[in-house]
Amino acid sequence: xxxxxxxxxxxxxxxxxxxxxxxxxxxxxxxxxxxxxxxxxxxxxxxxxxxxxxxxxxxxxxxxxxxxxxxxxxxxxxxxxxxxxxxxxxxxxxxxxxxxxxxxxxxxxxxxxxxxxxxxxxxxxxxxxxxxxxxxxxxxxxxxxxxxxxxxxxxxxxxxxxxxxxxxxxxxxxxxxxxxxxxxxxxxxxxxxxxxxxxxx
Length: 201
Hints:
Elements: E1 5-6, E2 16-17, H1 23-47, H2 63-87, H3 89-102, H4 107-133, H5 135-144, H6 155-174, H7 178-196
Antiparallel strand pairs: 1-2
Helix pairs in contact: 1-4, 2-3, 2-6, 2-7, 4-5, 4-7, 5-6, 6-7
């Protein structure tokens, strides 16, 4: 994706990055893609005759405990990702590349994208897939879904694998999707907004 500056079509305004993502289009694409992913998870669980959000029927959900676990996990993962970005050249290159793709959406768009992706991905990878294939393989498939064939994006699947293990461990430990969804959406919300306000490009 080119990041060279080019004048806007009105010729009188300031230059803007070529290819910068349109926030409304980002949300629209996310709703369609993650809606299909969520529907696939629901269908999978229904065909197997089990609940999607629970490891086994009838489990009670301690919302406060599991929500707190999710927030604590999100804080830890954000801290690790930020430290790796600050300490390594590959981390900085990945952050810059992701920021270029994301563009500069506002806080509301970042929160919407975080919620949509966090719910749908956890429903599919943890709720539907993990009970069938196990923690490690589900995390490996989650990492593979974050692969992009460009050098600056190569570290992304490795972080996704580690995050997938954390989300999956929360699912196994609590027996429900509350903690992993909160953790996943929390990581995405903080990091998306940080990337959107990043001015390294």
